[in-house]
Amino acid sequence: MATTLAGKNVDHQDLGLSSTLARGLMVLEFVATQGLPKGSTLQEISKTLGIPRSNAYRYATTLCEDGWLKKDNESSRYLVGWKTLQIAGASLQALDLRNVARLCLESLAKETGFTVHLAILTGTSIMYIDKVESDSPIQMRSRPGMTAPCYCTSIGKAMLASMEPSTVRKLLHHEPLPPRTRNTITNLEDLLGNLALIKRQGYALDCEENEEGIGCIGAVILNYDDKMAGGVSISALIDQLNNNDIDALGRKVMQVARDISQSMGCHHNHWQKEE
Q: Which of 13, 60, 85, 179 is most solvent-facing, going by the fewest CB within 10 Å?
């Protein structure tokens, strides 16, 4: 028997789809795509997917326990759960952020002559979602989709600085932090002190903390409810940054972060440097 999901014919005899995980994902996909808006009953799941009712119940119950689905006790229908919505929301936010920020990134790259990155936070890592190269013959090895630790990158530290120290402690509880270079801050208390400075000055510095020879300046991007949506940074050879006015560059990055944030609906100026 075959079932059509996401435009594909799914053969239940295919050994690649015979695992519990694959069948559980089929249940999740069915509810998310064919159960809208009122949800799906156990009978609908079982009949359409061609799996025993007892198995359908087991998969749906497990998905509910983990937050991927939820069950309406009155109608006994299964609906998309909070975790599915959270993942979908994060993906949409990253897409929206990229679309909103693109012109600002291009403008910053042209004005500074440095490579510009846009990233979001995923767990304890940042993930680059966009990049605008400079005209320099020396190109950065980063690319959209690449990840890096949040505690040693300027974008990551800018995002961490927007959080409460207690939240940062919970996030980075695996101290000591693995060193990436000889300049990486590996002590959590030292990092928290650095984050306090970043919060005061409005931008973060990465002076060869993530990669030897590379320096970055980053600032946080906020959305309409003042929640961290991502970050923007400029990157260059460390000598190039040392030969420029770091504070002036930091203000340019902050201005771009503010412009993107305002486009995302943020109406407060969180980038006003404390004197």
A: 13
